[in-house]
Specification:
The chain is mainly β. It has five helices and 23 strands.
Length: 295
């Protein structure tokens, strides 16, 4: 049986583990939403740096403006990075996957180092760099979960898309408030696509999502429950851990599929819709308010 829901929010995270941007529309590519996790902060050895190590990364706010991605943070002048430029080749590591990338230069490196070194966690990491994903590199998702779909990634943790139902957040907040805790916003869970019209956590059980874009239908397949780490416990307003999420998830979201891990939302891959019937490549555009067919 197929039912309909609505794509209610679209979120893009240009710099891995920094603040996201809520957009009304976004092109969809084989690696997920355009510009999602295209840049990443790394240490001197090229290892990724995230809010797990430096929660203050939540305060770095990217915005798109006239061919640039602009980074802003409290007490810092804006950093402008051209969307079509990088300084030179480098190597980076994401969860043990070493890959080629591009360094964004000394000015960008000094900017992220200056801001994040204002915290003890950032100071402990020493000099930092900003890297850009190499679009020629193919980084596939785990085939144990994707099976016959490649699911290419940029710098995301492991899958190109994260889907959350709006009702799942409502259920979370209902439980949080019954425990005497404050409600939280969707930003805590860092989704790419938020779907309204589902039952709480119905996204866990979906086999396929179809979005009928102007370029043609796109099928997205949820493949793996998203196990939550410490990042949702970072308040995106002040960049400080506050323990607002995981204790609530502990009360009802221990997932047997993930050996008791606390899950919220589903990792997903693009199953079809990026190539036309004539065999030419497409770049379908997703829009807030678009009808979502679920099965």
């Amino acid at each position: 049986m197929t039912t309909e829901a609505i794509l209610s929010e679209i979120w893009v995270y240009p710099v891995k583990s920094c603040a996201g941007i809520s957009v009304l529309r976004s092109p969809l590519t084989e690696t997920g939403l355009e510009w999602d996790r295209t840049w990443m902060v790394v240490d001197a050895q090229g290892q990724m740096v995230s809010q797990r190590e430096v929660p203050a990364m939540a305060l770095i706010e990217p915005r798109f403006r006239a061919g640039d991605v602009v980074l802003r943070a409290p007490g810092m002048l804006a950093l402008y990075l051209a969307l079509d430029q990088a300084e030179g080749p480098t190597r980076v590591d994401v969860w043990g996957h070493e890959m080629p990338a591009y360094d964004m230069g000394n000015l960008a490196a000094q900017w992220v180092t200056d801001f994040l070194s204002q915290t003890p966690a950032g100071q402990a990491l020493g000099p930092l760099r900003l890297a850009r994903f190499d679009p020629e590199h193919q980084r596939p998702s785990d085939p144990v979960w994707t099976q016959d779909h490649v699911g290419l990634n940029t710098f995301g943790d492991g899958f190109p898309l994260l889907i959350v139902g709006a009702a799942s957040l409502q259920e979370f907040n209902r439980r949080a408030q019954s425990m005497g805790r404050s409600a939280v916003q969707m930003q805590r869970f860092r989704p790419n696509l938020v779907i309204a019209g589902l039952q709480p956590h119905q996204e866990d059980r979906l086999s396929q999502i179809t979005l009928r874009t102007p370029q043609g239908p796109v099928q997205i397949r949820p493949v793996k429950p998203c196990v939550r780490c410490s990042v949702p416990d970072v308040d995106p307003q002040d960049g400080q851990p506050d323990g607002a999420v995981n204790p609530v998830l502990q009360s009802y979201r221990q997932d047997d599929r993930m050996n008791g891990g606390l899950t919220f939302g589903m990792n997903a891959v693009v199953a079809s819709g990026l190539v036309s019937a004539a065999g030419s490549e497409l770049e379908p555009v997703l829009s807030v308010g678009m009808t979502v067919e679920i099965a």
